[in-house]
Amino acid sequence: MRLARIRFNKRSVMVTWLISYISVLFVPIIISGVLYAAAWHVVESEVNRANNSVLEQMEQAIDNSLKGIERLSVEIALSKQVTGFMNTVKPLTDSDYYDLVSIANDLRVYQTANDFIEQIYIFYRNSDTVISTRDHTDSRKLFEAIRMKDELSYEEWAQFFEKPYIQEYAPITLREDGNSVKAVMYAKSVILANPDHPGAVILFVMKDSKLLENIPSASNKTSIAVLDKENRLVASTGFKHRPDFLDYDKFSGKNGLFIGTDSGKRAAVSYITSGSTGWKYIAMIPAELFDDKMKYMKKLIYASILLSLFMGGVVTYLFLRKNYMPIHLLIRSFSVKSGISFHEGSNEYGFLQDTLNHTFAEKEQIDRRLHQHRDAIRSHFLQGLLKGRLEQNVPVHESLVAHDIRLASPHFAVLLFQIEHFGKLEISDYAAPQKVRMLHFIIMNVAEEVIGNHNRAFTTEMDDLQACIVNFGSEPDKEELKRVAMQVKSYLLDHFHVHLTVAISGIHQEIYGIPTAYQETLAALEYRLVMGSGEIIGYDDLPSSETVRQSRSYYYPLHVEHQLINFVKSGDYEKSNALINEIIEINVSDASLSVSLAKCLMFDLISTLLKTMDEIGASSNKREFIERGNQVDRLIGCQTIKEMKLQIREVLNQVCRSIQEDRQQEHNQLSQHVIEYVMNNYSDENLNISLVGEKFGLTPSYLSKQFKAQTGEALLDVISRTRLAEAKRLLSLQKMTVAEIAKKVGYTDINTFNRIFKKFEGITPGKYKDIQ
């Protein structure tokens, strides 16, 4: 009774049953289709296997013959008689006619070497002479004998032989005794050492019948065709005309099988591709030849109908029982999950409606809670937008609407804010993450306020940075971005003493340009290494690769590094600090220093200073001082060139002051007197350690040892550096020759001067003078 009542009173149940019955009717059709497809696949595989066997044998036979012909062409091209006749011009002499006969005899020998060759011609363009195995003639007679097309004119035919170099196959029509025979021609140029010489062309003619006469065939109704890469029908048998499917481009891949039509009749077409020539070998079998093989398919269909009737009865019975199950399961599920009990005799759909209303009410409560977390979800979406990670299955415009993001124009830019100093919040009791979140909240509100109503801003956190997507409401303006960045930076500085570094991207179109804009801000922010923290850095203001390439870009030569090391060792803070400032100023003055080179400069300067400090610590009692001062960690921890400059200055001051204190305690007047004597007598060519020792009444070895202990330098090096310092000054004046300068600073031998100059300065005096 229940089933009857539901059947007649519930339309949806009737629809469900109707669909069920229709599904039962589809079962035999589906099974028959599967059986038909299986049978067709079996027949198709069998036909393809048989055709491929024929085609592979045909490919092997023809390719081997063609390779033999190509080898013969090389032998003929290397023949001295053949190449010697290329210089002959008209009129021909008796000697030339004798050569013609000799060449023709040789061609007959070559012809017998390959059964496929019908005729061999050699066309000498210089004398317009054509030699064959039978006789000799000219190009006009050759044109009458072989043509690529019947409608081809002699001038068009002659253009084929005007190519600089010929080595190709072409289908032709061979005229013999008034009859036209299809054939294939292989043409190969014979060229002398002089490329401007007209040369000659060897022509091998092979009849289609000879190419295909030994080809095995699965049936006398099987048609064979060969297509070359230019879609020309090289050879064929069994085709009364060329079908539409005989198109080279239609035979994609190395082999395959498809069903084509020839004169309205269906046929199975198999093909393979030659690995050596690229030709397509094609076999076509009429469908009528394998229709007999499809008879067993009828038996399969009959069996499938019987099976379908049986299965249809079973399925119909199951659906009759199953039709009510969906409603029954829904009622039971809703009754258990919603807590609303279902009373027997009640209306099922009424119960489902009440339960759904209750479910929708709960959904609205969930939506309200979800709305409370909208900002976090929106922020996550903006982060994915900046990084170019969007859901592929959801259109972008739908995601924008879902997150209440309305765009004013297709023009976008990105601002990136990095907190350099927390200002007033630095002394607060908040933890660092809380400080960052608080400042990001302030930056977000200030940025949205500054941007105004005509432009739109969307902010989010990105790896401890605050990113702001600017959507221009009118024409995009780079100066507008700089104004926004300056106002946000000034507001945070004036009210909270917070220092910000702001990176500005370029202006991009469409929403897909936002990830590119974000990457530009990261590149601009990285450039704070050069410009320093607390700056506004625009991506468009960064030095281009061309600017970096054209500028000097990097300046820190070896002689300057040696000079800096010596200044630090001597404890001269003023000179060492001035030299470091000069190095940094030269590198960053033209604003073309790239970030990578800036890092190299920082690493090089810090490395130089650390190596010098290590050497000072190893040679004195300063090791404990250096380790206690934690200078290494302070130097390596620098993030910008400006910060590095300040740290180096502070470390230099400590190191140099300590060295000076030691020098004042340990030094006596000897080293000073020696240096003064060297400064006053460096131009004396006899000045050496022995002469200085005699001056002060000391042996050379003792004097050297004491001087080294007091100054840290060898006396001979001091003499050389003093002379070279004066030499560099004179070289920069550009008034004296190198030889004159060498003599003036105490070197009688210019070679010695050049060697010592290059040792200390890294370059020769002549090159040093040229670069000044």
Structural description of this entry:
The longest helix is centred in the first third of the chain and has 67 residues, at 11-77. The chain is of the alpha+beta class. It has a seven-stranded antiparallel β-sheet with strand order 3-2-1-7-6-5-4. Strands 13, 14, 15, 16, 17 and 18 form a six-stranded mixed β-sheet that branches. Mean pLDDT is 77; it is low at 1-9. It folds into five domains: 56-290, Beta-Lactamase (2-Layer Sandwich), CATH 3.30.450; 329-371, no CATH class; 374-542, Alpha-Beta Plaits, CATH 3.30.70; 551-666, no CATH class; 670-705 and 712-772, Homeodomain-like (Arc Repressor Mutant, subunit A). Strand 2 and strand 3 (136-137) form a beta hairpin. The chain contains 30 helices and 18 strands. Helix 18 runs antiparallel to helix 19.
